[in-house]
Amino acid sequence: MNDQQDGVWTSEQVITCQDDTVGLRAVIAVDDTTLGPGFGGVRFKAYPSTAAAVEEAQRLAAAMTLKHALAELPYGGAKSVIIDDGLHRDGSDRQALVARFGSFVARLGGLYIPGVDMGTTLADMTLIAQQGAKVYCAEHDPAPWTARGTYVALQAGAAHVYGSHDSHDSQSSDGANAVAGLRVSVQGVGSVGAALARLLAAAGAHLIVSDVDSGRARQVAAEVGGEVVDPAQAPFVDCDVFAPCAVSRVITTDGVERLRCRVVAGAANDPLDSPEVAEALRRRGVTVVPDYVANAGGVIHEHARAMGWPEAQLEDAVDAIGPRVAEILRAADQAQEPPLVTAARRGRDRLRQSGSRGS
Question: Catalytic residues, which ones?
Fold first, then answer.
């Protein structure tokens, strides 16, 4: 049996947390601490099984390791999930659940630094911090910065495929606007997806928006002058760029041939179902911007706050995602490999180099 392939032994440490008095079932995965303590969000969602929750926590923690390495941040990769049983979605019961989870995080003594993620809020982070845990995202929402980084990454992906023209209205890092006139399908218009849609609309893109909350989708579409589609159809509509900003693994092997875009670039973690999908998309001529490079704006923002950076320094660091993406895409083309492979190799190289310096 290959333990690396079956996913059991892929993290430095995996902690399960349970307390029947509040109904807590949670998993904390610390993937790699070569660069520093594990930093990664807390998800609150339903899972079909405990094994599925453990697998997702480990998979997303590994992506966080690469995200921090490529963004040159002093953190390791980590992620946690609180299993949503349908009974603790609001009110005092949820507060007790989150607070109890915070006490488990506090026991780790700073080995794991949590932040907001799918299904959790700034208020949740405050509750966790009140239990003695070191927490990011408790006072300032990182979503606008995640959206800004995703925007410059999407601009870089579009420029790589479609070219660009000079613009003074775009926030892209080099003043070039590649999205004007393009059709962009944004799947998921929560805080990050909606902010991304607004940036794209301001740059002249035509928006197609979708969300499991149909009212929210209609509201954002009206704001940006876009159209609404069903979330399940968002990857397959006639568009130039697909921007997944919600759930993971939305593009499967079966869906590769149904895509009508040439660029995939969004804020969602882990949008491809498997490594085989990345290669299949490359062969089909679809450029996939690595998610953990594109969506690093939020973690850069949290590090900037912790270090007391001035806003200009934060802006420069987030906007540097654009040139980073452009360089990865060029290198991937030269190597004739998916950009995810190129990015992962560079992230692992940095970990090896840092480990050698520390030995």
Answer: 79
- Cα 7 to Cα 14, 80, 227, 273, 292, distances in angstroms: 12, 16, 40, 15, 20
Which residues does 7 contact at the CB level (< 8 Å), separation at least 6? 55, 58, 59
pLDDT for residue 7 = 60
| pLDDT higher than threshold 80 for residue 1 | no
- Nearest-Å Rg of the Cα atoms of the chain is 19
Q: Please, which residues have CB within 8 angstroms of residue 325's CB and are 6 or more apart in sequence?
A: 152, 153, 156, 157, 289, 290, 293, 294
What's the CA gap between 235 and 256, in Å, rounded? Answer: 10
Reduce the DSSP state of residue 58 to 3 states and report it. Answer: helix
| Residue among 36, 37, 318, 297 at smallest CA distance from 141 | 297
Phi/psi at 83 (5° precision) = -75, 120
Element (H, E) at 228: strand 227-228
pLDDT tens digits along 48-67: 999 999 999 999 999 999 99
Angle formed by the axes of helices 339-358 and 50-70, nearest 10°:
70
* 286 three-state secondary structure: coil
- Report phi then psi at 357, rounded to 5: -70, -30
Distance CA 121, CA 43 (A): 10
Residues with Cβ within 8 Å of 212's Cβ and at least 6 positions away in sequence, in order, are 188, 231, 246
**Amino acid found at 217:** A
pLDDT in tens, 243-299: 999 989 999 999 999 999 999 999 999 999 999 999 999 999 999 999 999 999 999
Q: Strand 76-83 to strand 38-45: parallel, antiparallel, or no bridges (unpaired)?
A: parallel
d(CA 256, CA 333): 19
Cβ–Cβ < 8 Å for 317, 173: no
Cβ neighbours of 110 (radius 10 Å): 11
Q: pTM for this structure? A: 0.91
The distance between the two most distant Cα atoms of the chain, rounded to a whole number of Å, is 60
